[in-house]
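Batch job 17 of 40 flagged for manual review because the log was empty.
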Amino acid sequence: MTSPLFSWFAVMVLISRSVLLASAAEPATQIPLTTRSTIRADTPKLPFSTLLKWKSTDILIKPISDETHNIVSVKDPTVVRYDNKWHVYATTANTQGNWSMVYLSFADWADAANAKPYYIDSNPNLRGYHCAPQVFYFRPHKKWYLIFQSQQPQYSTTDDISKPETWTKPQDFFGTKPASAPRLWIDYWMICDDTHAYLFFTGDNGRVYRSRTRIEDFPRGMSDPEICIEGPRNDVFEGSMTYRIKGTDTYLTLVEALSPARYYRAWTSNTLDGEWTLVPDADTWQKPFAGINNVTFEDGVAPWTRDISHGELIRDGYDETLTIDPKNLQFFYQGRDPAINIRYDQLPYRLGLLTVDLSSK
């Protein structure tokens, strides 16, 4: 049975995120652009050039049902390479519209379709509404952290990422919802520098928010959220992710845009607590960081999605610094059949992998 609290949260998520039904009927709220979301002359330079060209695989991971889980969607993946395996945590939706999570592991991408799912609500600590996960190893504690949306930001820990049954009971980052948080706070993302742990999130309202605490205090002591990126709602929607770029002092933030289909735009900064500036030629529908306008499909693969939606860049490592290698850019993402237009929690999302197409350079 679904609790009344979960039902209320689910309704709120569906109202805010069912863009195929709602956003087409109502004009998006426009938030004036500020210097935090414009292209500046002193934008930190990326160690790779844009316009990027990506090549997509076929669908790698599809929903797999069992006796107690009738799954229609797998989405919002987080992934790390550890101990010679890929470890994937992702959101699931069932035929009743309930959100939960799933874990899969496999040695190579070619094996992903055959990976046996472990449904996270099989862990008694993680029954109920939890979704949009992020996983990393926090070296100061020598523990794995799983960050997720419950609706508030929560976390669990384990000593072994390969044993999802060992994740602890969820804990809140905030004792009460901060006054500066948006009505609908979603898609939480943690990254650390040498001194602080930063929690980023979005609100489906044209804004990205940022909170932080000292490394020695993590996961306690999160500051009141502040706006760090803002713009029109269609352009700054949800699913943000932030990385440190290997061999540089530059950080990269990607934020999912809403329409005409889902795609990603990019910002850079020299510090996690600094000002974020748009990356030229990675900031529009026509010229995205990653979107259908700069994605083609591998030979023999029929285009299976128009959305390049909520996912994660493949990291160079698995710790709290969330470092990416600019010489090996890959993006594990969610997509779906664009011909199927039903309510948001029933959209048939699947997972695929983008790789920068060096042959196009």
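Reviewer: the log was empty due to a logging misconfiguration, but the result itself is present. The two ends are 54 Å apart (CA to CA). Unflagging and moving on to job 18.
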